[in-house]
Design a protein that fits this description.
heterodimer; A: alpha/beta; D-Maltodextrin-Binding Protein, domain 2; 2 domains; six-stranded mixed sheet; five-stranded mixed sheet; 9 helices; 13 strands; elongated; disordered C terminus; B: alpha+beta; BirA Bifunctional Protein, domain 2; nine-stranded mixed sheet; three-stranded antiparallel sheet
Chain lengths: 238, 353
């Protein structure tokens, strides 16, 4: 049995259902809107598991589901060494969002990351503590800033309403996911003139250990090329 | 596979060696308040240290290294001069990127260390000779450097104070450092900062921005750094040779860069003191850039002892950290130098010998 994990609500769920329907597999929620169980038609041996999108990376890595739909941002943030456990089967073409670093619009002197690094240094000597960046993507942001050799900053955790932290003076900058940038503009924030930290979209992932004939049949059914990779090869690449 | 008990036994033997050198043993806590470590190391430490939460004390860290708690203990109550030794676990996590490494590094391992707080100029040689002696039978490669030399070289460039300070601040970040140096070597570009009429938001004040804009506008008129200085700096940073051969090369560099002359004199005196303690300078590598890849708190002499094993961290490392005592000493400061040995690696080398 192949267990397919899909986000349990909202647009992400609807678009996932549409994506599979276009490929001849009908997914649906059984029973009422409040019930988190689902039905699969058109693909024998596949069952549907409705989960919070944020839990899908963990469930995939643990092998409790063989396939899962979630954002690349969540997989990369939540799973250290993700590509040793998971394989990307297909980018699905929706749920596009970029992880970006944004500063107050009023910072006329802050265009790129070099400006940001210089401002962080000035801020630290002026205020006696490191410039604060509010985010929930701690690992991704830290790894990126470390690779870009930015110092003199600290991350502060923000699990929601991150765009408001600057006005509330609990952070000087934010690192968050954005698709249209509207919320940023509404909160007088501006994205730094740099490539995004990560370009994310909804993606169909498989657990590497689950790549077996049954999964290969399902992938073929969906019209996907299943990469022939097993777990040992993945770690050898390291 | 070496047992923990065997590693501990090697650690005890090294600790005894440090005691004989006059050190007093101290045992810092394993759980340390995260705040001062975070302030000192920045976010990078969160990627390396285990952070945990105490309902009353707040954020705590499993000891990622001994230097900070030892300095704090000394600044709180120590007399000088002081020699300390310690043996205990440190904890480092490994945050792999996209791929999990095949062989993960140790997450907890022993460190046996020696720290010397004194104004005696012979202290560097004392510490280096002690480590050299304790590790003598293992055939390790000894390397040394001097961050003071690099900082003086940068500080002495014909640059404005602000430009020199920016370079010195980023000396541990090679990419950012060379981008800055590159920018300072070209004619300044004057930038526009159009007023967008935005209302001010956030803790960074408008005044701070206005001051930075004024600095940038002033900086655009500064003439570029002549290429000869970048060449000299590159030559200095690339200097790597047996210590006996590095000294004449440093002398030549000092003729072109007078700012490093005092640092070179200090290095010459240190080498002489090390040779005086019976160590052959042909067997020690001097690498001018050695300290750029070590801890950011080293600001003078640095050293490592490295085994010839692929992927191994140094078996021992250390250096001078005068500025750290100033930061942690709340106004007090004392010159300090020290280092650590990893007994687990020593035990492995001894077992395979």
């Amino acid at each position: 049995m192949i267990r397919l994990g899909v986000p349990s609500k909202g647009r992400l769920m609807e678009q996932t259902f549409d994506w599979f329907a276009e490929r001849g597999v009908k997914l649906s929620r059984s029973g009422s809107d409040r019930e988190y169980s689902g039905r699969v038609e058109g693909a024998p041996g596949v069952s549907l598991v409705l989960l919070s999108a944020g839990e899908i990376p963990r469930e995939l890595a643990a092998g409790r589901i063989e396939l899962g739909v979630t954002g690349t941002d969540l997989v990369r943030e939540k799973l250290a060494g993700w590509s040793s456990d998971l394989v990307e089967l297909a980018p699905m073409g929706f749920g596009h969002a970029n992880l970006i670093l944004a500063v107050p619009e009023c910072w006329r002197d802050c265009i790129d990351l070099d400006d940001f690094a210089a401002i962080a240094r000035d801020f630290r000597s002026e205020h006696g503590f490191r410039l604060r960046i509010a985010t929930k993507y701690h690992r991704l942001v830290r790894a990126w800033l470390s690779a870009q050799e930015v110092a003199d900053y600290q991350l502060v955790d923000s699990q929601g309403a991150t765009e408001g932290t600057v006005a509330n003076q609990t952070a000087e900058a934010i690192a968050d996911i954005t698709s249209s940038g509207e919320t940023l503009r509404a909160n007088n924030l501006r994205i730094l003139d740099e490539p995004p930290i990560l370009r994310s979209q909804a993606t169909l992932f498989a657990n590497r250990n689950a790549v077996k004939p049954s999964l290969q049949r399902f992938a073929a059914h969906l019209g996907l090329e299943l990469p022939c990779i097993n777990a040992t090869q993945a770690t050898a690449q390291a | 596979m070496i047992s923990k008990r065997d590693k501990e036994a090697v650690g005890q033997r090294l600790l005894e060696r440090f005691r004989q050198a006059g050190a007093q043993e101290i045992s810092p806590d394993i759980l340390l308040p995260a705040e001062s470590l975070l302030d000192l190391y920045g976010e990078d430490i969160r990627a390396r240290a285990y952070v945990t939460q105490d309902p009353i004390r707040g954020e705590m860290m499993l000891r990622p290294d001994f230097t900070v708690p030892v300095v704090q203990a000394h600044m709180a109550s120590g007399a000088e001069p002081a020699r300390y030794c310690y043996l205990g676990e440190v904890f480092r996590k490994q945050d792999s990127g996209d791929v999990r490494p095949e062989k993960s590094r140790d997450h907890e391992y022993l460190q046996c260390g020696f720290e010397l707080f004194t104004r005696d100029p012979d202290a560097d040689a004392e510490v280096f000779a002690l480590f050299h002696d304790a590790l003598q039978s293992l055939g390790l490669r000894a390397e040394m450097g001097d961050m003071g030399l690099l900082l003086d070289a940068v500080s002495g460039l014909p640059l404005t104070r602000a430009r020199a300070d920016a370079l010195m601040h980023h000396i541990w970040r090679p990419g950012r450092f060379s981008r800055l140096l590159d920018r300072f070597s070209k004619p300044g570009v004057s930038r526009c900062f159009p007023d967008t009429g935005q209302t001010w938001a956030g803790l960074r004040s408008e005044d701070e921005m206005i001051r930075r804009i004024a600095r940038l506008q002033g900086d655009a008129a500064v003439p570029p750094l002549a290429p000869v200085w970048t060449e000299r700096l590159d030559r200095l940073f690339a200097l790597r040779a047996p210590a006996s051969k590095a000294l004449p090369a440093l002398g030549e560099l000092a003729a072109d860069m007078p700012a490093i002359a005092p640092a070179v004199d200090r290095i010459v005196a240190r080498m002489a003191a090390i040779a005086h303690r019976g160590i052959d300078l042909d067997g020690v590598i001097f690498d001018a850039s050695h300290g750029r890849t070590t801890m950011e708190y080293y600001d003078g002499f640095t050293f490592t002892f490295q085994a010839d094993r692929a992927g191994w961290p140094p078996v021992a490392s250390g250096g001078r950290y005068d500025a750290l005592t100033l930061v942690l000493g709340k106004g007090r400061e004392i010159p300090a130098v020290g280092g650590i040995i990893r007994p687990g690696l020593v035990a492995e080398l001894e077992a395979s010998a």
